[in-house]
Amino acid sequence: MSHIEQTLVVLKPDSVGRSLIWEIVSRFERAGLHIIGMKMVRPSMDFLKDHYEGIGKLWTRKWDAILENACEMMRKMPLVALVIEWVEAIDYVRKMVGTTEPKAAAPGTIRGDYAHLSYGYVDSSDDIYFFNLVHASADADEAGQEIKLWFTEDELFSEDKPTHSTFTR
User: Fold this and answer.
1) pLDDT in the model for residue 31
2) Could you give the residue numbers annotated as active site?
3) Three-state DSSP class for 86?
4) Structure letter (DSSP) for residue 19
5) Which of 15, 140, 138, 147 has its CA nearest to residue 74?
6) What is the pLDDT of residue 127?
C-alpha cells in the first residue's frame, strides 16, 4: 500500500495580500513535499460555494452567513492553489498549517507564525473577515474531491517529480 498522497492547499487572500506566497510555499518545499500543481486564480462565487458546501459542507455544518462570509473573503484578492504530493502529505501539511483558529495555532506552524485573529474577535465585529492564511484538505476523500474541482489532470505534474525510491537506498 502506497503512503504517497496528494492534498490541496489554497493560499487565501491574506497570504497573497501580505506577500507571504513564497514564504509559505518555501516551507512546504523545505519540508521535502513536492508541489505538483500551482496556479493563481480568482474563483467565482458559485465555484467557492461548490468548494465550501459541495465538498466541505460548510453551510450544512454551520449556517448561511458563514458560507457567504467565507466566499466573500475568498474573493477579496486572487488565490494561489497548490497540489502537494508526498508520503502522508495530508496529515503532514495540516500539522504544518496549524489549527484553524490562528490564535490557537502553535508557534512554528504557518498560522501560528503569521496569523493572529481569534474566533471571538471576528465574531464581535461586523466588518472583519476570518483570515487564517491557508486552506488545507482535511482528509483523503476531501483532498480527492478538492483537487478535481481546482485542477485538471493536465495541470498536475506528478510524474515529473522524484519518487520515494529516489531518496531511499
Assistant:
1) 96
2) 135
3) strand
4) T
5) 15
6) 56
Q: Is the alpha carbon torsion for 116, 119, 121, 125 positive or negative?
A: positive
Amino acid at position 38, single letter = M
Sheet holding 79-87, edge to edge: 34-41, 79-87, 4-11, 134-136
Return the C-alpha cell found at 116: 493572529
Block means of pLDDT (10 residues each) for the chain, 169 residues, are 88 93 97 97 88 64 64 86 97 95 90 79 61 91 95 88 55
User: Which three cell numbers, joined as nine digits, stand for 151?
Assistant: 485542477
Distance CA 134, CA 156 (A): 20
Please report the domains of the chain, with CATH numbers, ordered by start residue: 4-42+77-167 (3.30.70.141)
> Which spans in the chain are helix H?
13-17, 21-30, 45-49, 58-61, 64-74, 89-97, 110-114, 119-123, 140-150
The per-residue pLDDT for 128 is 55
